[in-house]
Amino acid sequence: HRPDATTPPPTEQEDTPPMTLRTERDVLAAVPDGCLIDGVWRPTATVFDVHDPATGEVLAQVADATPAEAAEALDAACRAQPGWAATPPRQRAELLRRAYDLLLARADDFALLITLEMGKPLAESQGEVRYAADFLLWFSEQAVRIGGEYRLAPDGGSRLVTTRQPVGPCLLITPWNFPLAMMTRKVGPALAAGCTALLKPAEETPLSCLLLAQVLIEAGLPPGVIGLLPTGKPAELVGPLLADARLRKLSFTGSTEVGRELAAASGKQLLRSSMELGGNAPFLVFEDADLDAAVAGALLAKLRNGGQSCVAANRFLVHETAAEEFVERLTEEMSAVRLARGTDPLARLGPVISEEQRDRIALLVSDAVDRGAKVHTGGAEPAGRGWFFPPTVLSGVPGDALMVQQEIFGPVAQVQRFTDEADAVRRANATGSGLVGYLYTRDIGRALRVADALECGMVGVNRGLVSNAAAPFGGVKDSGLGREGGFEGIDEYLSTKYLAVDLG
Ligand code: NAD
């Protein structure tokens, strides 16, 4: 990469640059160069640019791995697989625990890298680093708890013994929105289970993943157990890997559109796959809700990660008697949010990831307005460089507006009204997605009834945040297949073997 892309190195004539600029350069310089194959960082023939979304400028240049390099990394993973699977679980656990400690020891570096490549405010990046580290800790604890069963067959004639074995070499593909946490959520359980893995970060945000791979090596991971393949042409690199019979598992987090394509390609090979895809979360506020808590939860569920999260609240559905006050209070809070580069200590909201994303959000807003929605705050992108979109609140968005059916993936809140519980549930479920739903009520019976009725994998009850390394994360319907985190997370990387034992 090119660490001097953001700021020229200080010369003797110049004043000392501000602290943050020096730190940015240092952190970028610490990112390993190349792709990782068999424990060695190797330069590639070409590189691709990574941009700072707050300025649009080139931040770094990163190795562009080719299908030939991916095949070599898979060769190495296959060679390493038997040894890694046979490594005692306690050793695998200790290695993950060391990686957890190393990651936290460098939390500031990781947070700054995430902010630089992805744009979110530093405080949020610090939160992502802790969340990401939690997966390494959690799965270091799970590595020693992989077990089986010993049972009597129903007819008493034999013993049924089950064991769990690692599925084998895995391909882990992650999106740009949580560049570090989405990768530890996959690589943690893969390594704990005894699988080798090829890591393919998003082309917008490969830097924190490159540093993560370095930390895993420093923690003592043997050569070949992980490979890292940054690329600017993901389809070209991933296609041949999926067609290679030696690959045993694909774990993908990203858009539903790409997920469908990769699931189809995996189907051809009967490759095991996990798909963590897009969401379109409803956020229900009933007439008996604690409105202070609901507004605070709404801000968190909408503005965390700039709204660029699969679990972001996409549709606020509020009982007709509470809607006006909810819109008023949400507008007051959203209009006070400070929009700035994520390194600015006062930034509460950073830029969105790209010009294309910003234009997409602007289009969704103008589509809703054309159909009669009212803008309470925000609505149009500010002038100046960088890819910023302001916090925006809309009401009166009709059901056929694009933002009702699609993930907004930006800091735009749309508020609709409902009349009763049945109407709320019907509207909440009226999309193809099924990742998460949020509900606010003081009635425990209603909370459980509605949670049961929501077609999704996770429900936030009087809470705007569901993510936790110890909980199973995942969805139903178009939101995907499989679970990450929790006790379930490691299952995705294990296959069950059953032994029929005749005692004679
Ligand atoms: P994306 O689908 O464009 O890209 C995701 C990853 O797939 C990237 O690494 C990209 O390089 C790769 N990719 C893209 N096209 C490919 C192809 N043809 N073949 C192989 N690989 C390909 O998604 P994105 O824009 O990076 O991320 C945003 C999406 O991710 C949103 O829809 C969001 O909801 C979803 N997401 C889901 C979860 C979840 O756990 N359910 C978590 C975070 C993000």
From TrEMBL:
It holds the Pfam family Aldedh. Residues 1-18 are annotated as: Disordered. GO terms for biological process: gamma-aminobutyric acid catabolic process. Coiled coil: none annotated. Signal peptide: none annotated. One of its GO terms (molecular function) is succinate-semialdehyde dehydrogenase (NAD+) activity. Transmembrane segments: none annotated. CDD domains: ALDH_F5_SSADH_GabD (cd07103). SUPFAM superfamilies: ALDH-like (SSF53720). InterPro entries: Ald_DH/histidinol_DH, Ald_DH_C, Ald_DH_CS_CYS, Ald_DH_CS_GLU, Ald_DH_N, Aldehyde_DH_dom, Aldehyde_DH_Superfamily. Gene3D superfamilies: Aldehyde Dehydrogenase, Chain A, domain 1, Aldehyde Dehydrogenase, Chain A, domain 2. Keywords: Oxidoreductase, Plasmid. PANTHER family: SUCCINATE-SEMIALDEHYDE DEHYDROGENASE, MITOCHONDRIAL. Belongs to the aldehyde dehydrogenase family. This is Aldehyde Dehydrogenase. It comes from Streptomyces clavuligerus.
